[in-house]
Amino acid sequence: MNEVGYVIGLVAVSAAVLALGVWFVRREIRDEVSPALVLWTGYAVVAAFVVFGVVRTSWVVLS
Amino acid sequence: MRTSFLNEHSLGWLGLAGRLYLGFVFLTAGIAKLPEPTITEQAVRSYQLLPWQIAPAYALALPIAEIVLGGLLILGLFTRSAATATALGMASFIVGITSAWARGLNIDCGCFGGGGASADPSYLADTIRDLGWLAIAVYLIVVRRTKLALDDLLFRRDAALDDYSESSKKTELGSST
């Protein structure tokens, strides 16, 4: 498997997941499932985990 | 009306099946790793992803987290939060396995104990299996309610009462007309 191709795929999939996450949080807020602050805080934690994972993995794979 | 009633119920039962299955998978994985922290540490290091110093703490924390998440899923307690954490865990395992594959490492995933160098790694099978488990975790996040969950007993009391009072109103209105 090509390392550069792997990293491009990883970044693309992660960006798609984060975009889907925004859609999901907005849907949950619209349906009043939980307070908006709680949902956006949860999203920020998940997004931070995803971004850290992508950066770390990309760094290791490409180095 | 009848169709939506059936759908809601079948989705809830499907959620229960997913919860129990994924819960037992995580519980089994955690119990398998817990008594062997040095072997788990070796498995973590073989991925060459985390800094060397973090591996012992990660090897200790991972099985405990898996057992806790497995227990929460089986009980249906904090289901959506537990499913979110499970999905993140599965995603990180998939990234670990596929990155090892991309780098040409020959390791065993160590998902249920063991791990380290392997002459015959099964990256494709492990990735497909983990994608299936990730799909179940995502379903549990999206479906909102599952059957026989402690969440319903502890946190949805008001909602249950609202449902009851709504149905009572309809019955009363129906009987008065």
Describe this structure in words.
The complex is a heterodimer of chains A (63) and B (177). Chain A has one domain. Chain A is elongated. Chain A is mainly α and 63 residues long. Chain A contains two helices and no strands. Chain B is an all-alpha fold. In chain B, 75% of the residues lie in helices and 2% in strands. Chain B has a two-stranded antiparallel sheet. In chain B, a hairpin with a 7-residue loop joins strand 1 and strand 2. In chain B, helix 1 packs antiparallel against helix 3, helix 1 crosses helix 5 and helix 3 packs across helix 4. Chain B is elongated. The chains are: A mainly alpha (63), B mainly alpha (177). Chain A: Keywords: Membrane, Transmembrane, Transmembrane helix. Chain B: It is found in: Membrane. Chain B: It is a multi-pass membrane protein.
Order of helices and strands of chain B: HHHHEEHHH
Radius of gyration of chain B: 21 Å
N- and C-termini, Cα separation of chain A: 15 Å
Largest sheet of chain B: 2 strands, antiparallel
Quaternary: heterodimer
Largest sheet of chain A: none
The number of helical elements of chain A comes to 2
What is the β-strand count of chain A? Answer: 0
Coarse shape of chain B: elongated
The N- and C-terminal alpha carbons of chain B lie at a distance of: 21 Å
**How much helix, percentage-wise, in residues of chain A?**
over 70%
Structure classification of chain A: mainly alpha
What overall geometry of chain A do the principal axes of the alpha carbons give?
Answer: elongated
- The averaged pLDDT of chain A comes out at 95
How many domains comprise the coordinates of chain A? 1
The tally of structural domains of chain B comes to 1
Proportion of residues in β-strands of chain B: under 5%
Strand order of the largest sheet of chain B: 1-2
Order of helices and strands of chain A: HH
**Biggest interface and its residues per chain?**
A-B, 17 and 16 residues
